[in-house]
Design goal:
- This protein is α/β, with parallel strands linked by helices and 365 residues long.
- It folds into two domains: 174 residues, 3-Layer(aba) Sandwich (Rossmann fold); 183 residues, Up-down Bundle (Dehydroquinate synthase-like, alpha domain).
- It contains 14 helices and 13 strands.
- The strands form four sheets. The protein has a seven-stranded mixed beta sheet with strand order 1-2-9-6-5-3-4, with helices on both faces.
- β12 and β13 form a beta hairpin.
- The radius of gyration is 20 Å and the shape is globular.
- The protein binds nicotinamide-adenine-dinucleotide (NAD).
- Nicotinamide-adenine-dinucleotide binds next to α2, α4, α5 and β8.
- The site of nicotinamide-adenine-dinucleotide (NAD) has 29 residues, from α2, α4, α5 and β8.
Amino acid sequence: MPELLHTLYVDLASATANRSYPIQIGHGLIADASIWQPLVEGRGVILVTDDQVGPLYGEAVKAALIGAGQLTEVVLSAGEAHKDMTSIQQILDAALQNKHERSSLFVALGGGVVGDMTGFAAACFLRGADFVQVPTTLLAQVDSSVGGKTGVNHAMGKNLIGAFHQPRQVVIDLDTLSTLPAREFAAGLAEVIKYGLIRDAEFFVWLTANAEALNSRDATALAFAIERSCAIKAAVVAADEREGGVRAHLNFGHTFGHAIERIQGYGEWLHGEAVAAGMVLASRLSVLQGTLESRVVDDLMALNQAVGLPVSLPADMTAQALLEAMGSDKKVSGGKVRYIMLSQLGEAVVTENVTEDDIARVIDA
Ligand SMILES: NC(=O)c1ccc[n+]([C@@H]2O[C@H](COP(=O)([O-])OP(=O)(O)OC[C@H]3O[C@@H](n4cnc5c(N)ncnc54)[C@H](O)[C@@H]3O)[C@@H](O)[C@H]2O)c1
């Protein structure tokens, strides 16, 4: 039986438009026709998935799309290597060749790669069609499906082509996590831990106490961790949709993390793994700057280890290589790298006052 546990809202109401949307969290939601009916009644649907998720969950979604108009399914090759304009072309070709109209609804069934690309294709299709996120990885459920950042990679770097395009709804079916490989699951936990570090000290303490339950994918623990994570992300996005201010806090650990991914070549470490090591370095930097107690770094390392995440750089990576790679991160503003630091557990701040020497010291620590 489907069970809707939580409905949260990303509050984007303004004087001129209300683009607020619900995030629904529960069990069996993808197969629940009552979730789909208000979304799809009488309109065409372009269901986008990948060749790993499609065979697992595609049929359940299609069977629940009762009352929808024409249905077109697009199955992309799975993986970050396919997050490119060729896949966008594939989605748009299918939508156009099947004569979909702007009223059709794009549905993203998959991880962050499918979600980012479906959202971008929807933003481009006939100058903007609606889309719904149905995230099936932990990372996508707690992070990429909420907030409207969509896009693809370019040879010059990750996520360089894209658009802000908010979904109409996010449908999080906790049951889909049962098939997620262990490494992907742990990588998603890195972003969950991040929310505790930047916004909610109590949540961080709860995560530490419940690491075992999370590792075993205990349904109650997962539902709480995902709800709390989505609530934090929703609040940050509502406060700063286009990343002019506080939304940058969500990049905690990511400047280091992106640099690790760039040096290694994407695909060696998962994004969440690189972010996990990056958060340790960013926390150490905060200690070095005198804003954070070193105890927090110890607690973070213990938590990372408890859930199977790295706590330091890959063995063969030098401080010099990391520094160079960080300089070319796209979060550089006016030639300066902005660092997200912790002023205390549960509170993030942005600073540019970090020297190369500081970075070298935390890397070598
Ligand atoms: N838009 C944003 O705000 C935002 C935020 C963070 C990350 N991202 C993006 O998200 C992407 C990473 O997303 P991801 O970690 O979900 O990776 P992913 O989409 O590549 O999924 C990881 C792998 O798991 C498979 N998979 C997905 N769900 C599954 C399930 N339930 N069972 C079995 N296998 C399943 C996929 O087919 C894929 O092979 C990156 O491209 C990143 O840039 C975007």
